[in-house]
Amino acid sequence: MGIDPRELTEEDLLRELRHLHVTRTETLRHGSEDALAHHTTRMAEMEREYMRRFPEREVDPGRLREGARQRG
User: What is the model's pTM?
Assistant: First the structure.
């Protein structure tokens, strides 16, 4: 059901992730059960691959619980 995420270049992986996130709401609202299940599976595969490649990714402090408290 698509190219194995491990075979994608970094550029292709990021492009696919962006596309999946853009199409998520449309699939949720208007896709069939099968389409939504496939979308969910594919997004999880891509996100796992991203995390595998970038385990030490930069985390925005504002996205942490403490950052949320400071905003509130």
Answer: 0.81
